[in-house]
Structure formats: structure tokens, C-alpha cells
Amino acid sequence: MAYLLAADIGGTKTLMQLSTAAGEVVLAERYQSADYPDFEQMLSAFLTPVTDCREITACFAVAGPVQGETARVTNLPWQLNSLEIKARFDLKQVMLCNDFEAVGYGIESLSEDELLVLQAGDERLGPRAVIGAGTGLGQAYLIANDNGWQVYPTEGGHSDFAPADRTQLRLFEHLLERFGHVSYERVVSGEGLVTIYNFLRDYRQLEENPDCRVAMVNDDGAHAISVFARDRDPLACEAMAMFFSIYGAQAGNLALTVMPTAGLYIAGGIAAKNLELLEQSNFLEAFNSKGRMQDLMQGIPVKLVLQPEVGLNGARLLAAKAMYN
Questions:
Q1: Whole-number mean pLDDT of the chain?
Q2: CB-based burial, 165-175: b 16+ in 10 Å, e otherwise
């Protein structure tokens, strides 16, 4: 029997799923990526119950640049080679794609209740774009063709951060001293949220809730900040507000570049998990605040992806296409 193996490989977590060609899930696991020194050891653990891999077609979506048969995870010391993986595990086919390429294809599988319209705009024929903040900042754009949508991944999350006000300028200067180059990913990601929180505490000399600091040390820092923001902790709230403002600005930059009249989609875990904070923020104001292009921006549909496995679904779709080609 033919099987599909899909993986969504991120800097924090990796999702893996083995299914039949008909879509029946045989095996599914979620891993903490940092628990493994490389992807192959994780894959070996996942495939332990599988006795014969020769009829498995695999697609691995990687949070990092993919060049031919090789890929590198940006926020982990992992490198993948599709030919080596195919040979080691005796798989039928192995393909690698960028994680936001998979997200782009996964959008096709979403139902209406897995999307939330943030800005209705004027949806019409044209490109789509997708951006998502999580451990990093992914971006891609989609062009319609006779066979559906063709997805083009980018590394636009590493483009230069442009401060929009004096406080953001101070943040930029702070990061420039530390890193020499300041990308949007440095700010619009999980680590970026922690950086914003620490910066605001010191720059504004705001009082920090000691319970929040303990939670940040003992848990994922970004998660702890979001939890305390939902409980109306002032410093955490200000950090989340600044984060979403910068996030909206970069989403708007992507929209200006691509002109996604068929919709700009917000993916990644941070936005969907903090929906109330997102809706209370000036994300859309920052998105639309593009000077003489503001009216144009207000016509672009903006939708939030609520399905956390959209990238995994996209990887499975790509594996299915590879199987039948």
C-alpha cells in the first residue's frame, strides 16, 4: 500500500504524520525539535513502528532556506539532505520544501471556519500572500495558474527592520548594537517578543511582575508574556501591543510588494493563540498605514489562519502530488 509521510519542521516543534494515500492517518507525533541533535534521529524515532518504508513518499517542510536536495533549519543546527534521507530510510521518494511553501499549499485545504476575516477588503483575482510569526518569521506568495496555486517561498522575514516611531527607533538601536543587522525576524518572532519585553522594561523603566519573570525563565518566554498580557499585566500588554504593531507593518510591506488582491493570510502560532490581543492591537492600523497607499491597503483582504496544522496539511498535499507525478 502507498503511504504519505509529511513533516512540518520548526525551530521549536516538529509535527509528523504518516497517512494512506486516501488520507487515513496511521501515525502522528509532535516533537520538541531541540530534544534531537538532528532531524534524522527524530525521523528514526517516528518510523520505529514502521516495518517497510519502500512505499512511502515523503515531503518535509523546513523552517529555513531550501536549495535543491538540501535544507537548513534557520533556528537550529540541523541540515537535511533528501537523497541521504531517502537512502538511509529506504523511502520511495523524499522532497524538501520551505515551511511557508507548505503553508501556502495548505491554505487550499482550509474551510471557512478555519479562517477569520480581519479586513474584508475587496477580494478579486490576483496573487495571495502569507506571513507568519512563530519561532521565526515566514513569508511566501502565491500565483494562480491552471492547476490551482503555485507557491513561491521567500526569506523576506530577514529583510531590514524599519522603525515606525521613536520607541521602535530606540529598539532598533539596541538591537543594532547587539547584532549588527536587524531583521524583522529579530523583532517579529518568539524571541523578538521577549526582546521587546526586556527592552521596554529597561527603556521605560517599567515595573516588572516577578511572577512573569519566573514564568519566562521556567517556560517559553514568549508564551509567558502572552499569558500575563491576557491577564492585563501592564508591561506584558505593552510588549504585545508593540509586537503586533511591528507585525502589522511588515505584513503591510509584504502586501505592498505582492499586491495580494486575493488575500493576505496571517499564519504562525503567535497570532492565532493571542486572538483577543491581536484584535485589540493596532495591527490593522499599522498594516494600512502606508501613506499615500492607505486606500489601496484597505482594499486588501486580510485573513487569520486558525488551523495550527496548515503547514503539515500542505506538506501532505505536496507529497500526494509527488506520488502521482
A1: 94
A2: eebbeebbebb
User: d(Cα 139, Cα 130) in Å, to the nearest integer?
Assistant: 6
Contact 15, 33 (CB under 8 A): no
- Read off the pLDDT band of 325 (50, 70, 90): confident
- Consecutive H or E run containing 284: helix 283-288
pLDDT at 148: 87
Grid cell at residue 289: 498605514
All residues at 6 or more sequence positions from 219 whose CB lies less than 8 Å from its CB, including other chains: none
Burial label for 292, CB within 10 Å (0-12, 13-18, 19+), is: exposed
Per the rule left: phi > 0, alpha: psi between -120 and 50, beta: everything else, 54 is alpha
**Rounded Cα gap, residues 283 and 141, in angstroms:** 20
Q: Which residue is associated with the grid cell 519585553?
A: 197
**What is the spatial distance between Cα 299 and Cα 242, in angstroms, rounded to a whole number?**
24
- Tell me the three cell numbers of residue 266: 496571517
Residue 250's nearest CA partner among 154, 305, 297, 184 is 184
Cβ–Cβ < 8 Å for 140, 264? no
Q: What is the DSSP letter of 169?
A: H
Higher pLDDT, 216 or 261: 261
Single-letter amino acid, residue 324: Y
Q: Hey, CA dihedral for 236, 238, 240, 246, is it positive or negative?
A: negative
pLDDT, tens digit (0-9, with 9 covering 90-100), for 202-242? 988 888 988 899 988 888 899 999 999 999 999 999 999 99
CB 315 within 8 A of CB 102: yes
3-state secondary structure of 261: coil
